[in-house]
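dumping the sequnces here before i forget
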Amino acid sequence: MSPLRRVLPHVVVLAVFAVLLWFLPGTIRALFGQASVSYVTLVTNAASLAILALSWDLLARTGQVSLAHAAFFGAGAYSTALLSRFADVPLWLGIPLGGVVAGLIALALGPVTLRLHGIYFAIATLSFTEVLRAVVHQLPSRIAGGAPGLNVPALFRPTFVAGEMERWEVAFIRNEGYFLIYAAVLVFTLLLSIIIQRTRLRYAFTAVRTNQEVAAVMGVNPARTKLLAFVLSSVPVGLLGAVAAHRFGSVNPFETFSIHTTVLALVTPIFGGLYTTVGPLLGATVLAGIEETLRRSLDSGYMIAYGVVLVFAVLFMPRGLVGLLGKLFRRRREAAK
Amino acid sequence: MDLSLLLQAITSGLLSSGLYALVAIGLALAIGVIGIVNFAHGEFFMIGAFLTYQLAVSLGFDPLLSILVVAPLLFLLGAFLYRTTVHYVLGAPELNQMLLTFGLGIILQNLALLVWGGDPRTVPSIPYRSLSFNIGDVTVGAVMLGSFVISMLLVLGLYWLLYRTPLGRGMRAVAQSRIGASLVGLNVDRTYLVTFAVSAALAGIGGVMIAVIQSPSPTVGLTFTLKAFAIVVLAGLGNIRGIIWASVLVALAESLIANLVPNGDSLRNAVFFSIIFLVLILRGRRPA
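..and the predicted 3d for all of it:
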């Protein structure tokens, strides 16, 4: 079967999913009216989590556990912030450039770090993130804003016209706009994941993960494969960081490079199911729901859910939700026989 | 350059190296004996600091007195976490172990956030906090000197434990070979439990000291996990003997940059992270 024929059916499914995402905000609005403003925020957060999780999983498929997601997120956010401040770049162009900057950083960081394994790679990437944060913090404040950070212009400024629409509708239009961009980044990430899973790349990634020496003997170049995965995994995060910078209206060294981003990126796919496309998506949906529920009752410390989920997943569900559902499904089928 | 400034920077660097060695040696112990890279190590330290704060506020405990309460409590916490979680991943891939302790760290940090909130806390009314004396042009804070002395005594105590007691001999035997140790009749699992608990207790005592030195917030844990990592990585993973030298080196580098580079104070953490990053990369060049 040609690679195209193997990829195509999945791309069709993805296209259907994209169409569904396109109509999602409108559907929510029709169903919930005024409450839809916060529901759209909720699905935007879920999309954000899914992008983080899926992109992290792309690299995990080669066996490397990265703690650099916050660095790529911050790089994307700061590059769009700086571009909109100093260069007369149109706002929509700053977002893809954020992805490019993140990809370039991965391209530079990869060759020096990827030969480290396991915890060594994890610690090296975590310390890289902290160094990058310190550098951004130390840059002269007329350039990068120092500790208070920079303001980032909003992408959507729907104006309120009395009589034509309600107040909440203005907020809805704004949230809908951001959701659609998040959805576009998500679809892009899903496309990357599908292409990797349905072409020979999948075997290369799996071979490198299970045994590098054997992979090399089989003709797979481990260094190049891991670098490819690292770059592919960084670009969506850079895009996400850039969009998020516009959505939240500011960047600063502490929140933009927060370890939370890295934690979310690693817990979600482990919970959902590693090395799959559906797992991170599923994990993100469930975790976004849990986080929202906790956030309503606690003002800080809601991240505890991620810790509990991580410990639970490591101890009791090595294959994640996907593995759990698969087991359930098989048991059903066997019982039916 | 001003000579007295240089001497001052060297002195404060040396004085803070004790606390670093104390925290790092616990981490090195867990890595060397159990083989667990404990990402939650700094959280034990943080919990120690907040217990000190709570004991001072609720019961009026002096921090020196709290050491006697905090150390056993952290020992129990370490033993509890070992028994309920770490014990079950000993045979699992290294990454699962790392992820588990990472998760434990997130839980402990957020528990602290839930109980104490995100703001830094200052232990009230410590009479000796601002005490200091001068040697020439160099000022030595009593608290820093005290924490250095206590830390170094504990570090030396740990060496004594490892090399002069049956328990320590057991730890070293288990570190060398899990199977060999169990063949000669050592209870491996109990040795692991005690090691993990001792490691937590040492970090907890470090936390007591940081509660006096600074006003810690719940996020101090992760910073100290990484600082301890920097030292452990510099000493060589699992190498317990190299910890003191590595701590001195790292603490001096931090103090010199923080005091002598203009605007250097905010570079403190960057120093540590650059050290970890560079050491890992340069070590990685050698065949593992």
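The domain at 3-336 of chain A is CATH 1.10.3470 (ABC transporter involved in vitamin B12 uptake, BtuC).
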